[in-house]
Amino acid sequence: MIDYLWVLIVLPLLGAAALIVFGKRIGDPWSGRLASALVGTAFLIAAGFTVPLVTGNGHPETVELFSWIPVLGVEVSLLWDPLAALMTLIVTGVGFLIHVYAVGYMHGDERFGRFFGYMNLFIASMLTLVLASNFVVMFVGWELVGLSSYLLISFWFVRPAASAAGKKAFIVNRIGDWGFLVALLLIFAAFGTFEFAAVFAEAPTGLTTGMATAITLLLFLGAVGKSAQIPLYVWLPDAMEGPTPVSALIHAATMVTAGIYMIARTAVLFGLAPATLTVVATVGAATALFAATLAMGQRDIKRVLAYSTISQLGYMVMAVGVTAFTAGMFHLMTHAFFKALLFLGAGAVIHAVAGEQDMSRMGGLRKVMPITFWTMVVAWLAIAGVAPLSGFWSKDEILAAAFAHGGYFVFLWAIGVVAALLTAFYMTRLMILTFGGEERWPDGVEASEAPPILTVPLVILAVLSATAGIFNTPFRLGLEHFLEPSFEGVTQQLPPAGATVVALAALALVVALVGIFWGWARYSRRLPVEEGGFWGAAVEGYRVDDWYGRLVVAPGKAMATWAAEILDGRIIDGVVNGVGGGVKSFGNSLSGTQSGLVRWYGAVMAAGTLGLLLWLLLSGGLF
Amino acid sequence: MVLPTLILLPLIGAVAVALVPKNRSELVFPLGLAVSIPPLVAALWVAANFTVGEASFQFVTDHTLSESLGIGWRLGIDGISLWLVVLTALLFPLAVAASTAITDRTKSYLVAMLILETGLLGVFLALDLLLFFAFFEIVLVPMYLLIGIWGSENRGYASLKFVLFTGAGSVFLLGGIIVLGLFTGDLVDRLSSFDIRVMLDVELSSTAQLWLFLAFGIAFAIKVPIVPFHTWLPDAHTEAPTAASVILAGVLLKMGGYGFLRFNMTLFPEATVDLVWVLAVLGVIGIVYGAVVAIVQPDIKRLVAYSSVSHMGFVLLGLFALTSQGLTGGVFVMISHGLVTGALFLLVGMLYDRRHTRLIDDYGGIATVMPIYAGFFLYMAFASIGLPGLSGFVGELAVLVGSYLTLPVLAIIAASGVILAAVYLLWAYERVFTGPITNSANEGLHDLGLREIAIIVPLILIVLAIGIYPKPILDRIQPSVDLILERIEATTSYEVPEHGATVDEGAG
Q: Do the beta carbons of residue A471 and residue A477 sit within 8 Å?
């Protein structure tokens, strides 16, 4: 059965091909239905493949498909193990719900069919990344999700902002990809193969710490790009120019978690490079806090969620940085549920208020959109870390692991706790500004509850967001146990035992409640004026984009212009034209006119070479 | 027999086109298109009957023309030339099909194109250096005429520059060939010999190798082109008619890479090893410089031209990595670049046919009115960027992996090409295709017609096919480049680094 693992990738890939070419003809809504059915089928097949892994009858399997680049020994082969299974189920499961939602959300769009073609292309790409059994195939998926992301962010390409955001996302990601690519070179030089199994088997004995550090730092650069960490996070807020289902699927639940997945997949290598791990954990913690402060100040509901995603990704990166790989994957899963829910809920809200995204022009929506409201309440409490919802368990596990890692990492734990406080605060702010208080919608807007095709996925995600914690509570480490075969030979940081973990959990809960109370106190009665100072800076993202523009883009452009106009145009070509001019005037003095020279030259050359060939032809038997 | 036939087919076609009577001029174009097909069929036949795993020349034709001078009509094909020949034979029908906008002196135009094809096929198939030189020069003439007569505004300057540059290189090349021929003559007790298979046995002093390497190398460096000998290329590309640009980028530049591989690296191994650093550094400079300069080009054609400089830098780096991966990758990049850049020039030409401007600023938002065209362009742009799954990635990855083994620092710098390619192509795409239509002259643009779609679709499919399954191509390239490496190892103290060993496992 497992030999047919490739079907998981091929199903959405066929959908993509069909819908990109014939999407217009298949039209609205059948394009969406087809795309959704394919992803749903992939989910069911993946679930079937997962059963033996859960019951303990299965073991990791590699499925070799065909030889791809023989000169590099690269095969296209896939790996099915618990880690791949978990990611596949998230990608196809959440992906399916978002596809269904998008059938309603994108209804009436001129390029409806094309949209679902790109969505299916994304699923196929993401599954390639997830199922790869070697670094090169993983890189293929890595690049193809970048392509899908580009296509979907700039889907409404007539809007210059959308088009620019797509380009920015791809280029910023490519900076990270450079790291991944160079890591590939180092890996081949060190191991002579790209296969995970062979590399991981040889690494503990065959790799120096220096080489392990170099490889993992380069891989991490890739993760920093894809998972939007400092300093490459700047593409993600802009990516919100894409349609909201895209933000939910790609820029919250799945693609942006690829960096965390990649680090978990290569845990053996990271385990050999303590210096890298410290960098990883630090970047993660810093991003978690930094992005949380930015999320506090946004007025655009999607941008709050974008910065929130960056912040939550920071937690996951911190988790893998303290070698709590399972905790990182656990949070990846719960976050996929509640963040997808938040985005889809936000999409429903935006639809209801006629495309408005500014929260200061929302308010009072709880009455008209009860289903959206209540499902988002679940997500709000989950991300804030209120027990017993899923986010509480997964975030707490990360923080507890960081605490248990000891030393310097206790400091990172503290940063994580502060970020958790801010998370509870900004999410409360979002909920109250959107659903609470007075109605502040634009004139003429008749807000109403979304149709079932939007709300059913919300309800399912709400159930998952509420309950997914049971997969890995401190009392029953289900996920930990399930993922064990994927982390063989990897030392993981577990949460501390006994009273400490209870105390930490209690503290986390208190922090969450304080954050919520703080938000409640600040926003529940009136709308405070949030201008200037911190609020002004936060809305502008602390002007980081400006600084990148001034320090990187502008000098880069100036240098390119100089190279093109001065160096190439005047200096190099100047020498050429000088020499050419000399020849020309010499020729002029011989033949009189310039155009005469050109023809003469050409004619002589033609005659000479043809003559030579003719001579060759005539002076001997040709055949 | 098949190779002489292959070379002469376009020439016969040229004669046929030339014989079309004046009052039947409507037949000229269909006939020109029709006669460009048989060479493709012949090339594919050769590819299909090519023995995999055989490193040396196949389908050899060997007829001595002059016993005492050692000149012969010697043709043969190996894994290096095979795909260049197929590429040449493939691009010509497409380029001819894309030439419907040529209404002035159509007959002469097609004759020039077909002679050009004969010349190019000859370059890749000749096993005799003088014969090679003859074909090398024959190529110049029709290309000069194509640019000079059917080019755009600044064609006079561009064509002259093209001829002078390449002609200058040829002088050195001819000198080098004659000297080497005389050396070889000593070996076989004649005045001279130009059979490259015989030349392999000549023992040359280090100094002789160095000078000969430079003499050959200058001609090929101009063709590749290597920075700073590249400035003829943007002018020639830009002013040339579409078909000539396609052939220039698609095939003509490969004469340089092919020349280095077939002659410099094969005949002068010691000089090759000594000069590795110089050429690899120049290759990396080309990668970065070409890409950086491409970013700010205001003219789409110039942008694609500079992207060629960047991609050909990968070829050079791959060749002078002196590893199996690098060499194989370098040859593959040549093939992929020929297809992708050929397609990009075809596409730019289709737009030029409609609006008669190549300036990026004259466009904006045209994806709205030309969605199919935009899709095709974006596809080829991503192929050029090196997106995995399309052909560009395979060769570039092999080049980078192969060059990292011997020249790690250069490989790491070269890898930054992946960022820069995304910058110049996606920025150009953004400005030409996305946003609202800002220039009312573009509102009425019609999307690609059936003929134009039929020209691009084959390239789209091939770029995808060899991106996903490059094995048949790589399996034929690798033995032949390995033979060159073995010779370098046998005649110098150079040793290919260890991880070449894994190649065999993978190939099995």
A: no
DSSP line for A475-523: TB-HHHHHHGGGGTT---PPPPPHHHHHHHHHHHHHHHHHHHHHHHHHH
CA atoms within 13 A on the CB side of A73: 23
Please name the residue of chain B whose CA is at the shortest distance from the CA of residue A598: B160
pLDDT exceeds cutoff 70 at B78: yes
Task: Mark which residues 578-597 of A lie under 8 Å from B by CB.
Answer: 580, 583, 595
Is B93 in contact with B29 (CB distance < 8 Å)?
no
Residues of B numbered 426-485 whose beta carbons fall under 8 angstroms of chain A's beta carbons: which are they?
426-427, 429-430, 433-436, 468-471, 474-475, 478
* A256 min Cα distance to partner chain B (Å): 19
Inter-residue contact B147 to B162 (CB < 8 Å): yes
Taken as a whole, chain A contains a residue count of 623
Nearest Cβ partner for B401 among A67, A185, A580 = A185
pLDDT digits (tens, 9 = 90+) for B287-314: 999 999 999 999 999 999 999 999 999 9
- Chain A contact for B411, CB < 8 A? yes
Question: Does B474 contact A178 at a Cβ distance shorter than 8 Å?
Answer: no
Beta carbons of B470 and A68 less than 8 Å apart: yes
Residue entry with tokens 């706790």: A417
At residue A578 the predicted structure's pLDDT band, cuts being 50, 70 and 90, is confident
pLDDT, tens digit (0-9, with 9 covering 90-100), for A527-568: 888 888 999 999 999 999 999 999 999 999 999 999 998 999
Mutate which: A71, A121, A142, A593, vs B, most B CBs within 10 A = A71
CB of B64 within 8 Å of a chain A CB? The answer is yes
A311, pLDDT greater than 50: yes
**Cβ neighbours of residue A71 under 8 Å, at least 6 residues apart?**
B324, B325, B328, B329, B398, B474, B478, B503, B506, B507
Cα–Cα–Cα angle for B223, B227, B228, rounded to 5 degrees: 100
What pLDDT sits at residue A621? 42
Whether chain B has a CB inside 8 Å of the CB on A161: the answer is no
pLDDT tier, B191 (very low <50, low <70, confident <90, very high otherwise): confident
Instruction: Look at residues A314, A373, A348, A312 and name the one whose alpha carbon lies nearest to residue A98.
Output: A348
- Report which secondary-structure segment, H or E, holds B470: none
Prior bond of A496 cis (ω within 30°): no
Torsion of CA A526, A528, A529, A533, to 10 degrees: 180
Q: Inspect the interface and report whether the beta carbons of A178 and B415 lie closer than 8 Å.
A: yes
| Whole-number Å distance between alpha carbons of B383 and B406 | 27
Q: Cα A331 vs. chain centroid, distance in angstroms?
A: 15
